[in-house]
Amino acid sequence: MYQRILTPLLLDGRRSVLVLGPRQVGKSTLLSSLGPDIALNLASPRTFRDYVSHPERLERELHAAPPSAKTVFIDEVQRVPALLDVVQLFLDEHPGRFRFLLSGSSARKLRRGQANLLPGRIHVHYMHPLLARELAGDFDLDRALAHGTLPGIYAEPDQRLRSADLRSYADTYLREEIQAEALVRNLGGFSRLLDLVAASSGRILNLHALCKDAGLGYETARRYIEVLQHTLVAFHVPAWSGSDRTRLVRHGKLFLFDIGVRNALLRRPLDRVLPDERGFLLEQFIACELHRRLGTLWPEAALFHYRTRGGAEVDFVVEVGRELWGIEVKAGDRVTRRMLRGLASLASRTPRVKRRIVVFLGRRAQTIDGVEILPLAAFLALLPGELG
């Protein structure tokens, strides 16, 4: 099992936690490794039936638990949100009796339940596919760009099995299980939109064009995009607006949560990276590395992109407190001054830009006109990788 960055935080047993993330990112494996005394897996049909019809059963079981039982793990808690009322009851009326470890893959279904949890009693963390830092010596860029970094898929040594597992995940979970959650009724329309989102992952979102191509109404398409975000399989990177809104493009970008899932949905070959997509996939890889650090690892940071109506672009703008980092991604091993125009445009708009960075695939760091040109490994080492 890969060492997850969340592990040290979860080993500190003073707080109950809710870990949210898409299926197969390792939530169950990580929380099970903490050795809970009582465990409910609501993905099991039998367990689900038992508790969805009688959620009060958990209250009776916890009252009857021996004093030695201290930790309660509820997996896929969004399937029976009423159990959160029992959790809230024990945290409120029996403080310190149990530590609850909760996992979920649908923020939409948990929204109401989370509102009942006492502030400060439940700490919410998000879990994602593996960071390059979590892979450590097993990290291989070409493999990550082709297969993504879902733990079980990345760890499979047989390339053919990795590809088959990835296609199964894309087809079975994303197309069918999300519908089974009663979030989508029109599976055909949702499936078409999902393919289009995969094709446009990392590009500026044009919802009207997606509606037309998918044959869906605007509100339906908008709701389906929300489903993808609420089930944590897509994330939105808004446009950085600054103060001069009239000259900036304000549409955000939508990214799928894992590059391998994107490739599987688009029926790309999964044994290699297509040469004409290498730069585009490297940009998506950096997007995922940045997004996965927001919140727990980098709570003071927010992620944006930058584009003017005149065509100046910066792939990512990270707002860290009052400072801004402009980040460009280049898949080659050479960087020229011509490639720095977007960063110059961003810096001309605000003195808050403190770091201008180009991530490239060369071997040695350099500086051009004050811009840091960093090899991929050096850039990743610059980002937060441990809990403060």
List the helices and strands and how they pair.
Blueprint lengths: L6 H5 L4 E5 L6 H6 L5 E4 L3 H9 L2 H9 L6 E5 L7 H11 L5 E6 L2 H10 L5 E5 L5 H4 L5 H7 L3 H5 L3 H22 L6 H14 L6 H8 L3 H13 L3 E4 L15 E4 L2 H7 L12 H14 L9 E7 L5 E8 L2 E7 L11 H9 L3 E8 L5 E3 L2 E5 H7 L6
Parallel strand pairs: 1-4, 1-5, 2-3, 3-4, 10-11, 11-13
Antiparallel strand pairs: 6-7, 8-9, 9-10, 12-13
Helix pairs in contact: 8-14, 10-11, 10-14, 11-12, 11-14, 12-13
Question: Can you describe what's shown?
Answer:
With 388 residues, this protein is an alpha/beta fold. Helix 8 packs across helix 14. It folds into two domains: 120 residues, Rossmann fold (3-Layer(aba) Sandwich); 251 residues, no CATH class. The protein starts with 6 loop residues before the first helix and ends in a 6-residue tail after the last helix. The protein has a six-stranded mixed beta sheet, with helices on both faces. The protein has a five-stranded parallel beta sheet with strand order 2-3-4-1-5. The model has no long low-confidence stretch (mean pLDDT 89). Helix 5 links the parallel strand 3 and strand 4. It contains 17 helices and 13 strands.
